[in-house]
Specification:
Length: 253
Amino acid sequence: MRMDSPRRGFISGFTLIELLVVIAIIAILAAILFPVFAQAKAAAKKTACLSNSKQIGTGLYIYLNDFDDTLPMANYPTSPSNVASSFSYLSGGAGGFVAQNWADIIQPYTKNYQMFKCPDDSSGPLMNNGVAVPGFPLSYALNYYFFRNLDGFFGSVSGGNIGAVTEPSGRLFVVESASSISQELVSPRPTRAIGLSRHLKGSNYVYADTHAKYHLTPASWALIPDATWKTPALAQTTGYNEWFPWVDGPEKW
């Protein structure tokens, strides 16, 4: 008896149910992995920013050696006789000539303009009357309290001598800000709220002794009234000694 030969040309494939199961598995894996990838990307940007901060600290260290341990001024007085800033920055928010700021001052020691832009700073360019201000982005600023004490604001001429600073290894000097604002001096709030939690609920800092470090932002900072942060005598009672060069005591994070 002759047996029928197997059918030729038969093509096997997935059923609709099998395809739906595969798609569901892929969707579940994507839902699990995408947040992981996003967090890894954020961590990489935080690390890149910390590298920038460390380079800024190195430049600051060399600057201090050349200027008798005097911390740099926030910006030069606005004058046509000065060299203009290379950064997208408006001294006093005015147009026309833009005087150099602290980032220009230490540029001979860093020799890198791009590192002053945090890779996670998405605030955009500084605008003046709807027009982007030319120059390199600047994502960092100086601690407001290095140019102020309980007797008042003494201007932006100098951050003082590091020898007179109480515990320079625990006092913040350069902090994260944003390229979209024109401020060379910032405090915890309200002027630097834009950089408070830029990197995984924290940000990077350069200390007065020039080392750099990442810190999570204390939740209580946002609860302290802006009027308190703006008044040195009240601000120092918050206990966050890292901001105040004239006080004793450890940092509080």
